[in-house]
Amino acid sequence: MFHQTPLKTGAVLLLATAAVVYAFTTGFFGLELLTEVAILAIVAIALDLVAGYGGMVSLCHGALYGVGAYAFASATVLLGWGGGAGMAMAVAGGGAFAWLIGAVSARTHGIFFIMATLAFGQMAYAYFFDSPLFGGSDGMPGIARLDLSGAGLDLNDSRGYALFCTVLALLAYALAATLLRSGFGRTLVGIRANEPRMRALGLPVWRHKAAAFGTSGALAGLAGALAAQHTMYVSPGLLHWTVSGELLIMVILGGLGTLVGAVLGAGVLVFVKHEVARFTDHWHMVVGLVLIATVLSGGRGIFGQIEFLWGRRGARRPEPAATEGSPDHA
Amino acid sequence: MLEVRDLSKSFGALAVTQRVSLRVAPGERRVLLGPNGAGKTTLFNLLVGELAPDSGLILVDGRDVTALSVDARARLGLARSYQKNNLFAGLTVHENLALSAACAQGKATALLADSHRDRGVVATVEEVAERVGLSELLDASVDTIPYGARRRLEVGLALASKPRILLMDEPTSGIGPGGINAFHAFLHGLPAELTILIVEHDMDLAFGIADRVTVLNHGEVVFDGPPQEARDSALIREIYLGSWGAEGGGHA
Ligand SMILES: Nc1ncnc2c1ncn2[C@@H]1O[C@H](COP(=O)(O)OP(=O)(O)OP(=O)(O)O)[C@@H](O)[C@H]1O
Ligand SMILES: [Mg+2]
């Protein structure tokens, strides 16, 4: 079950503080990295929501992210809508597509579920790759950023945009945490633990899983809209399954089913990628080695390991295992 | 309350349920007996919808539920516990019971409120935990509690959904004589209006609680009547008690 523990709250505050301090001390290149981390953190949170807490390991979150990006681009460039409406469109587009994927795939499990999401994702990729309306393989340029000058914010300034994305990542975390500690989230964890029993207790499991997947897709869509505005350009590459794979790596590296780990994983992967790429082209290998080390050392991921060690430290205090040897009632 | 008409089910050539008909009255305590492989668990699976029958009807309050899904039947007040523990692994006893109670009380999809802290849910969790003797273990993970406690939680999960009809599949298997006595007391404490179907291998317990006994053999109902008659029936002694000695050790 999800609990917003003091450890989690502390970690989130620390990460947020680090991001803000970094934003005011780094240059243009650093701000680009920070923006990328914040955006990917939102998709990683969305993915952890369904994979870590709902047991639905997805290989289509890149596609949901891409659909959000294209929805924003279409709404603002093709339809001439404002940035706010474009963002709403991205959230709705990602959510609707994900709900559909969830509704169709929710009856499958394990590898079959993964394959179903992969197939949907690649279908969307192929569609945008071939579609003249959306620029085909060239994608769509000329995307403008949201205009928040009324609120005194210049999103065309890279620091302003980085901070804007950081705030949205924080809100995404708060939203996911709220959902996970609600009845909806508790039940989602119940489904992961024992889906047939949840059904036997009267839950329409299919509907619940589709709703969770749709919610996750809406968050991924939001991140897509931010990515489109970040680069001011969208291309089918956003939807490719390798993006989904990389998102899964982030979540596993940071700690599947810890929520904070998703944010941490996004940060580690983006920074490792750019730092290592300065020395060698083989940064994929470095990430691969880190991932193997993570899986072999218990598979808890960075934040999962931190929570594990923290919990053991707590357990060593003088409260003996109360469950041991408790008498069967007679 | 619960009625079964001419229910049949085969796995390939093996007829596991053969033209079974039953009628269980509201508040009745019905004990289902039969040797290993008689089709008792299969009948439960058919009743709750985990298996689809080849033919026949299942009615709850006179309503045909044969085509309803597992969850839809559960929402009508049909709950079952399993012969093999079927819990929410990795979660605490409280969380297990709360998942069940929240589902029955319409809190399972609340978007803001924490269902596991909901007043109604917590009250049900505490009441059920008290009934099945798990009050001391509410915060323990189900992975660490003793077998007997897990067995009681198995029944507790079904009970926490506040069913009108409760099916229990060998709830006392493997819990020892002390556990069986406690279970007897537990059954007597249940509300009189609750309709209960129970598969039970312990004869003293079975005859002690039954309003009526149904005996299955090779998927067929071979006896349906009051417990005194069942005790005296030569047929039952032959098909049932004959195999009893061989399995008595396993269920004691
Ligand atoms: N899914 C299945 N596929 C094929 N055969 C099955 C299946 N489920 C049960 N059977 C067979 O049906 C018969 C009845 O099984 P069932 O579990 O209903 O018996 P039971 O009366 O509950 O026995 P026990 O006292 O051992 O629990 C057995 O021969 C069993 O092997
Ligand atoms: Mg059985």
From TrEMBL, chain A:
Superkingdom of the organism of origin:
Bacteria
Gene Ontology annotations for the cellular component aspect, listed alphabetically: plasma membrane
Identify the PANTHER family for this entry. Answer: ABC TRANSPORTER ATP-BINDING PROTEIN, HIGH-AFFINITY BRANCHED-CHAIN AMINO ACID TRANSPORT SYSTEM PERMEASE
Q: Could you tell me which InterPro entries the record lists for this protein?
A: ABC_transp_permease, LivM-like
Q: What is this protein called?
A: Branched-chain amino acid ABC transporter permease
Q: Name one GO molecular function term.
A: branched-chain amino acid transmembrane transporter activity
Q: TM spans, by residue?
A: 12-31, 37-56, 87-104, 111-129, 161-189, 210-228, 248-271, 283-303
Give UniProt keywords alphabetically: Cell membrane, Membrane, Transmembrane, Transmembrane helix
Q: From which source organism is this entry?
A: Thalassobaculum fulvum
From TrEMBL, chain B:
Q: Which CDD domains match?
A: ABC_Mj1267_LivG_branched (cd03219)
Question: Which Pfam families does the UniProt record give?
Answer: ABC_tran (PF00005)
* Gene3D superfamilies per record: P-loop containing nucleotide triphosphate hydrolases (3.40.50.300)
Which domain of life does the protein's organism represent?
Bacteria
Gene Ontology molecular functions: ATP binding; ATP hydrolysis activity
Q: Name one GO cellular component term.
A: plasma membrane
Provide the alphabetized UniProt keywords.
Answer: ATP-binding, Nucleotide-binding, Transport
Q: Which InterPro entries is this protein grouped with? A: AAA+_ATPase, ABC_AA/LPS_Transport, ABC_transporter-like_ATP-bd, P-loop_NTPase
Q: Where is the ABC transporter domain?
A: 2-243
This protein is called: ABC transporter ATP-binding protein
